[in-house]
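Here is a complete protein record:
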Amino acid sequence: MKRGSLVYTPAYDRWTFESPAFTYDLHCGDVLDLRVGGHYISCRLELGPRGWYVVIPDPKLRSRTTFLLSSGTRYIARLP
């Protein structure tokens, strides 16, 4: 797993994964682990009418949860 930060780039309306080793522009459907509290949660990045969001599958409930990403926030993430 590559660890780094998820940063929004307004000039390109895109989220970018940044680590000391490399930078990767994320696209709809990309899978990553997002740090929430002290845990990493597997999710999928998507773009909708209201902006960028992540889809978090919840196998316990057989459903999924979505969260809008705030463009002014830097998130801790990791890529497979």
Summary: The CA atoms of residues 20 and 51 lie 27 Å apart. Residues 2-79 form a domain with the Thrombin, subunit H fold (CATH 2.40.10.390). The chain is about 0% helix and 65% strand. The mean pLDDT is 85.
